[in-house]
Amino acid sequence: MIQKLGKACQEWGFFQVINHGVPESLMKQMIDACQRFFELPEEEKKEFHTKNLLDPIKCGTSFNVAIDKVRLWRDYLKVIAHPKFNSLYKPAGYSEVSLEFSKRTRAVATEILNGISESLGLEADYITKAMNWDRGCQILAANYYPACPQPDLAIGIPPHTDHGLVTLLIQNDMCGLEVKHNDQWVLVNAAPGAFIVNVGDQMQILTNDKYKSIWHRATVNNTATRISIAVPHGPALDTPAVPIPELLEKEGEKAKYIGMTYEKFMELQASPAAYMMPCLDHLRVKDN
């Protein structure tokens, strides 16, 4: 199993996890709670509108924003759930469901990180210790993609990589996640009750490019609303990821990246600099 995990991280950067112990009923409750939030009148959501990257709760819309002549077609809600749990007081029931979901999801992410450490030939808790996981950042990021009258002219989320260590994702019955593999876009068909998991930028840095953070995007359709909940898990905000010395020694490699705190890395990803050049390339050691 550990070997399969390592192979998936190396060859795809994406995999699915079943039999993870999180009840499917809880996953559905979480999607329902987020749907109820998105269905609130705009006036009621306005208090959570903010542009600040690390505000505990923020929501907004990407409707009618022109990027490369393609329109973004999405509403979003982002809530920081760890190291301090934050929540919404509306809609009713959201707070209780999101607390249970964030705890359960974090436990699954911890198991995955332990497995990834072992797949690299390290102690199971190596990555969690190195990244100050007890203070690690966990975000509940819900995305709402209504049916789009012209799906060929719009996209839910443009191609991107995730900034954290690993991201866990669930969705309603509508597909829409596409992963870039061998220069082809591949639609992900999720198994019932599965978490879709992908490797993030911090993991690519730690493994010195062995496990790659893969480009992915969200497409839209003209038949039904799609809701996804992505849960990125990262290091503590003040912790920089650097290539793991033991791996460099074992592989006889030089470090390909310089360090940057996770908070600074997230700020970089949200800045115009990330449009000019992928974030990881900003940290890449230049060949002399």
Automatic annotation (TrEMBL):
Query: Per its UniProt entry, which superkingdom is the organism in?
Result: Eukaryota
Zinc in keyword set:
no
Q: Which PANTHER family match?
A: OXOGLUTARATE/IRON-DEPENDENT DIOXYGENASE
Keywords attached to this Swiss-Prot or TrEMBL record, sorted alphabetically, are:
Iron, Metal-binding, Oxidoreductase, Vitamin C
Which Gene3D superfamilies does this chain map to? B-lactam Antibiotic, Isopenicillin N Synthase, Chain
> Per its record, how is this protein called by name?
Fe2OG dioxygenase domain-containing protein
Q: Which residues form a coiled coil?
A: none
Supply the InterPro entries for this chain: DIOX_N, IPNS-like_FE2OG_OXY, IPNS-like_sf, Oxoglu/Fe-dep_dioxygenase_dom, Plant_2OG-oxidoreductases
* SUPFAM superfamilies found in the cross-reference section: Clavaminate synthase-like
What GO annotations for molecular function exist for this entry?
L-ascorbic acid binding; metal ion binding; oxidoreductase activity
Domain Fe2OG dioxygenase: residue ranges:
135-235
**The family this protein is said to belong to:** Belongs to the iron/ascorbate-dependent oxidoreductase family.
Membrane-spanning segments: none
